[in-house]
Design a protein that fits this description.
Elements lengths: L7 H14 L10 H8 L10 H5 L12 H10 L2 E4 L2 E4 L1 E6 L2 E6 L13 H15 L6 E5 L5 H9 L4 E6 L2 H14 L4 E4 L10 E6 L22 H13 E15 L5 H10 L4 E9 L17 E11 L2
Parallel strand pairs: 5-6, 5-8, 6-7, 8-9
Antiparallel strand pairs: 1-2, 3-4, 9-11, 10-11
Helix pairs in contact: 1-4, 1-7, 5-6, 8-9
């Protein structure tokens, strides 16, 4: 991915991200629940700095930002009016020394591109996997979102061919911009799982949506039993498309019901006699606790963040 592969609008978005990055800006994106609580404070009603605009997604008044940054926001099409002031339609979040463009809070649109604590845990799991060594000639990030998985793989294994696939055009746009911003060679491709890309892969990484979302928003809705549908579909695809000796790293969520993990049981049944070894780890025992108030998770004990790693036998 290079700057010449970007259209004019995306090139302006890249220019904006670089201009903000050059100020020394950093921002760690919290959960939506924490974001809502912090923004509900009276002192947080209006943005007072770049973090308020591009991190906390607060309205801001004309004159707050340097004229050059405000002009780039207009040219990139990410500036809107609202609440008596102006707003950014994108956020900029820090990860591993890099900056990533993604959707502004709240992520209510069907094509929103999510970034948050799951992203940070996913990134740590990928980097830990890559530290184990082993050749990676070809890799893919399924459901790439803003592209952090593919970009981290590409930066750590610069000689590998790295694909970032998604069905969300907004996600692919942001991945293209983020890859150039990070100096990473990762190709953004529109594909439903791996249906539109050919060949096998030495490494497949994925951080799919894993909740039941009443609005079926693409970045959030996992479908299937307790949100596990997409995760199980990715596992099935990986078992078919991994090269001998290849690895799948699947970061997802698992609803625990009466002390049991239905996702783990379903995943191990799929792995079965497929010729693969596996490990399974809870990275966080309790995420998205607000989902337990009713609906699909009324009988669940908790939702855990988990990593399933499988290695196809050579």
């Amino acid at each position: 991915m290079n700057e010449f592969s970007l259209n004019d609008l995306d090139a302006k978005l890249l220019e904006l991200a670089r201009a903000v990055q050059d100020t020394g800006y950093t921002f760690t994106t919290p959960t939506p629940a924490t974001h809502a609580r912090v923004n509900a404070r009276a002192s947080s009603a209006w943005a007072q700095d770049l973090a308020g605009v591009f991190g906390w997604s607060r309205p801001f008044r004309e004159g707050l930002l340097p004229p050059g940054i405000l002009a780039l926001m207009r040219e990139a099409g990410v500036l809107v009016s609202g609440d008596g002031g102006l707003r950014s339609t994108i956020r900029l979040s820090s990860l591993d020394g890099l900056l990533f463009v993604h959707s502004a809070y709240p992520t209510t649109a069907a094509d929103s591109v999510f970034f948050g604590p799951d992203t940070y845990r996913f990134a740590r799991a990928i980097l830990a996997q890559l530290e184990q060594g082993g050749p990676v000639r070809r890799a893919v990030d399924i459901g790439c979102g803003a592209g952090p998985g593919a970009i981290l793989v590409a930066r750590t294994r610069p000689d590998a061919e790295v694909l970032a696939v998604d069905i969300n055009a907004s996600a692919l746009r942001m991945t293209r911009v983020n890859a150039v911003l990070a100096g990473a060679q990762a190709a953004a491709v529109n594909s439903n799982l791996l249906s539109d890309v050919a060949g096998s892969f030495d490494l497949i990484v994925a951080n799919p949506p894993y909740l039941i979302d009443p609005g079926a928003r693409a970045y959030r809705h996992g479908g299937g039993p307790l949100g596990a549908g997409l995760s199980l579909a990715i596992l099935n695809t990986a078992l078919e498309r991994l090269s001998p000796g290849g690895t799948l790293l699947l970061y997802t969520g698992a609803a625990i019901v009466n002390g049991t993990d239905p996702f783990k049981m379903a995943a191990l049944a799929q792995i079965g006699g497929s010729g693969a070894s596996w490990t399974y780890e809870e990275l966080d025992p309790d995420v998205f606790g607000e989902e337990l108030d009713g609906g699909a998770y009324a009988a669940a004990d908790r939702i855990a963040a988990v990593v399933l790693t499988i290695k196809k036998w050579e």
